[in-house]
Please model this.
Amino acid sequence: MLKIKFFLLGFCLFFSCINYESDKIEISDGVYLKNDWIYDLKKSDNSDFEIPFYTIGKISPTKFNAISIKNSKEEVAHSIGIYFKYEKKGEDKDEIIGVFLQNTSMDSMEFKFPNCLNICPIKIQIDENDEFLELKGSYSTSNSFVMELKDEVLIDLLKEKKKIRVRIPISINNKNTVFEFFEFDFSDYSGGIDF
Model:
């Protein structure tokens, strides 16, 4: 009888773990969270305003504190996310067609990407056995919250499931621009928008 109880207990634990791994959490309409990845798979009823791509993104665990605009006695933490664009239709359907960085702030007075003249460099480092190998990338800013990258360096690193850090310019509470590293771990990338 004791063996049967242990078997049933193990069976239940096994299936609860499987369900936990396969579960996705819907955080808003058409936007899901699974294994620290954000899947924006929204569909539009109005084809005039449809975004032609889905995104998969991840928020960096690197955070910086800013003074809250709403309450000057309170600190708020901000970070950045990296988002990969997947084509929705056509010949390149489900292929990565671009990448952008977006900060987590809702107010540019707290945390923003500073304006840049034309194209600005970013520094990308790959974690190879606790040593960082350096690459270069570039971006242009469309506003204080989004950086659109102009090359495929980060796309290649995603496909290779690398651990990286990206050094970018930021401004906290409208102070002078500083360059800071944000870490990302792509080792758990599942390979696309299907989950």
Q: What stands out?
A: The longest helix spans residues 2-22.
